[in-house]
Amino acid sequence: MNLIFGYFDWILLTIIIIVNIYYWRKLKPLKGCLKVFSLIILFGLILPFFSMVVEIQLYSSPEDDSFNLLYTYFRFPAYWTIGIIQLIIIFIGSKNQNL
Fold it and tell me: Residue 69: how many CA atoms within 13 Å on its side-chain side?
């Protein structure tokens, strides 16, 4: 797990879990495409890009070649998975609130 996630990722995942726990009962249904689209953009592009940049800034050095940090591209599928799980949590929580 330490190969895929760095310190930035663990902090971000902790924040996401805390927000999910705190707002679990207050979730509102996702009406409209804008909220879903913003979550897809957030977890699909923005968060993995910043995670990759932070990792490269922390662990790169001038004598490294470009293949040493090639694993940072695996951040994208990991964040896609987290985003899908987040969307499922929001949809389940909003359905339970409507009952």
Answer: 17
Along the 99 residues of the chain, how does pLDDT read in single tens digits? 566 677 888 888 898 888 877 776 666 666 667 877 888 898 889 988 988 888 888 777 777 666 667 777 888 888 899 888 888 877 777 666 655
The answer to whether the CB of 2 falls within 8 A of the CB of 59 is: no
Gap between the Cα atoms of 70 and 97, Å rounded: 43
Angle CA 48–71–1, to nearest 5: 80
Enter the pTM of the model: 0.74
Burial class (CB in 10 A: 0-12, 13-18, 19+), 81: exposed
Question: In whole angstroms, what is the distance from residue 70 CA to residue 60 CA?
Answer: 11
Distances (CA, A) of 58 to 18, 72, 98: 26, 12, 45
